[in-house]
Every structure is written in structure tokens, then in C-alpha cells.
Amino acid sequence: MAGTVVMKFGGTSVADAERLKRAAARIVRAKEGGRRVVAVLSARGQTTDELVAMAEEVSPHPDPREMDMLLSTGERMSCALCAMAINDLGHRAISLTGSQAGIVTDTSHTKARILDVRADRIREALDGGAIVLVAGFQGVSTSRDVTTLGRGGSDTTAVALAAAVQAEVCEIYTDVAGVFSADPRIVPRARKLPVVSFEEMLEMASSGAKVLQLRSVEYARTHGVRIHCRSSFTDQPGTLVLGEGETMERPLITAVTHSTEEARVTLLGVPDEPGVAGRIFTALAEANCNVDMIIQNEPVSDGHHADMSFTVPRADLPAARAALDPLVSGLGIKALSADPEMGKVSIVGAGMKSHPGVAAQVFSTLGAERINIEMISTSPIKISCVIRGEQVPQAVRALHAAFELGDEDVQGERPFGAVGSSA
Ligand code: ADP
Ligand code: ASP
Ligand code: MG
Description:
binds adenosine-5'-diphosphate, binds aspartic acid, six-stranded antiparallel beta sheet, binds magnesium ion, globular, alpha/beta, 34% helix, eight-stranded mixed beta sheet
């Protein structure tokens, strides 16, 4: 039987009629090349942002179920239009919503997780010779409501479908040529990475490299899906995300990533008693807030209270406040304050596991730029620093230069581990 390919087109790649037709032509080319084709489409251009703004105009805290009914329409629009364009090219295409495609999720509206993919209808359509177009970013919950998968979720739709139909490859077509050593919008001379390991891509995605949604990378690793992230505007190969065993020896540092969408919450005077932290973070988990870094200071002068800070995505701040407000009085916490203007810069590289001195170089590089580090967290292959949001671009450029990650720097193999004198 012919091989199957899943092709996912992001918002910029279907933003106007001309681009949508170009995506249709690329889909048709794959089909004419003898492959069974499933294409996943995102909402066009800024459509999802516009739908969010529309909801906020009529309601300060839109009901999550209704929000999902609204947000899911953007990708349906793209799919139906693309099917029309494909049909005009003389091929048969059928567009499906996430629900029709058999994507079953849990019930957490606006950030639902895929539980199962019942792909019979897709398989039947492929067997019948059709091209199948699936609306990205959405599914149907176990209580039969429409759900969405969190911002950037069409990547996860594509990977989940690739696993379900046992595709040879899941191609993610986007507005950059692949995964780079930093966001090319901030560092124009960033280097395109021909391959990146799952381990590194997970850390990159979780620290802000939105080129692939974190869950799509997790799903691909668990289900053994091959991801090829590439440009929708050229035929050049992009970046392959591979298992650790398939990648060659990697440089010390692979990429600098960033996020400008962080908020910091500080709780002053938290009673220093067993169980209190558990109650705070259980409340946040139940409110579906993704807590990232956590710092607790030593008990202050009275010996019975400590201060605690943590970060959440800025979008989760209202939910975090709502979850914590009742606890502040209930537990006798002295005050809650929040700073929504935080950012984060991280360096990721599998090579740093066995190399001391990388953290020192990160801190001195930021210090030389007079950038204050407010919080730090590390994993074996990542160092993240929370800094002021407005200083993020400067920090990214400085770290990218200090670790010599640019195109011209890596020409000719750099000796493994050579990062500069203070490392
Ligand atoms: P799509 O709409 O195709 O899903 P996204 O906007 O979600 O595209 O992701 C692509 C964007 O990710 C790029 O335009 C780029 O600005 C950003 N990005 C951030 N970090 C990286 C990186 N390390 N490599 C490539 N792109 C990155
Ligand atoms: N349209 C959705 C978003 O803007 C999903 C996606 O593009 O992947 O987040
Ligand atoms: Mg995306």
C-alpha cells in the first residue's frame, strides 16, 4: 500500500487566498506522487486572536465551553476553503472537523488533551482515494462537547493523526524554514538545525520556542512519530526531530529560547507549616494553571512565615488569582501580588549535561548586559532565567552571540565544549 503522509499548514501558510491555493497545490503534489494524504490546517492568519478578542468584547470571562465552540470555527473555515481549492485542481478532498475525524479529548476546555483518535472515517476516505483535510486544534470531549487543544494545538492534531494512520512522516509546514538556534525574528542570523533530538525539542518547546507545540513533541516521542518541520514557501528540507539514538553527537548548546508571556505571583508571609504549599499548588493545579518556576525564601524574622514566588503563563494569571484569593485569607497569607510583565530566556543543549561552567557563562553574559536575573531553574539540559519582559530580545541576542550559535560561528566543526574562556 502507498505510504501515508500528514501535512500540517500553520496560520501564516493559509493566511490569504493565494497562500491557501499554494498549500492546496502542495497537498495535490504529494497525492500525485503516489501518497495517501491527510492535511491538517490552522485558522487563517490572526483569526484565532480575532475570535478571542470578539469573545472578550461581549464577556469579561467567557464561558470555556462556548469559547471552544467559537475558537474551533477558525480551522473549519480553512479546511472547507482548502477542500474547494483542491477539488478545483481535479482531486477529491473531504474536510472534517476534529470531532468528525475521531479526535477524542478530555473535558478541559481551551486546553484539552487528546485521549484517543478513532480514525476509521479518515481511513475509509483514504481507502476511497480522497485527500482528507482535518481542522486542527480541536476535538470532541468525553462529554460530547467541542474542545480546543491550547494555542498552537494544530501541531498536536497533526502528530496524533500521524500516529493513528501510521504515517511515514508528519510534515509541519510553517513560516520559517525549520527549527533554528533562536527565534529568527529576534536573531536574523540564527542557524537552521538540520536535526534536533526529542529531548532537546521538548525543552525548547517548553521554554517558549513555539515553532512546535510542546504536546505535539511529547506525543511524537511517545508514539514514535517522525516530525519534519519545514517552510511552506520553499522546497528546502527543514528540521527533523529524531530519537536520541538517531542523532549524532551534538554541540554543547543547541539553542536559545525565550518567552515574553510570563507572569510572576508572589505570596508574602506564607505560614511555614507542613501542608500549606500542598494546598496552594493543589488549588492552582485544580484551576488548570501551569506553574513553572517556584522559589521559597527562608522564613523571615518571626521564623513562622516565608515568602514564595512562582511563575505562570500570563494567560493563566486571572485563573491563578481566582484560585488563590480564597486561600490568602483562609491560610493567613499576608499578601498576594503579581507582576504580569515577566519574560524568560533559556539555553538548551544535550551537551551541557557533562560540562560545568555553562551556568556561569549564562549569568556573566546577562550580567554584562546589566540584565537582572529574578529566578533561575535548571534541568540536565536547560538553564532558564526569569527576567523583565522588555529585556528578553537583548538577552536572547547576547546569549546567542556568547555561545557562538550563529551560522558563521558553526561553519567548520567547532570543538565540542568550546564556549568561551569563562565556561
Ligand atoms: P504556525 O502558524 O505555522 O503554527 P507559529 O507562529 O506557531 O507558526 O510558529 C512559528 C514561529 O515560531 C516562527 O515564526 C518563529 O518566530 C517562532 N519561533 C520561536 N522560536 C523559534 C525557533 N527556535 N526556531 C524557529 N522558529 C521559532
Ligand atoms: N489557531 C490556533 C492558534 O492560533 C491553533 C494553531 O494555529 O495551531 O493557536
Ligand atoms: Mg503554531
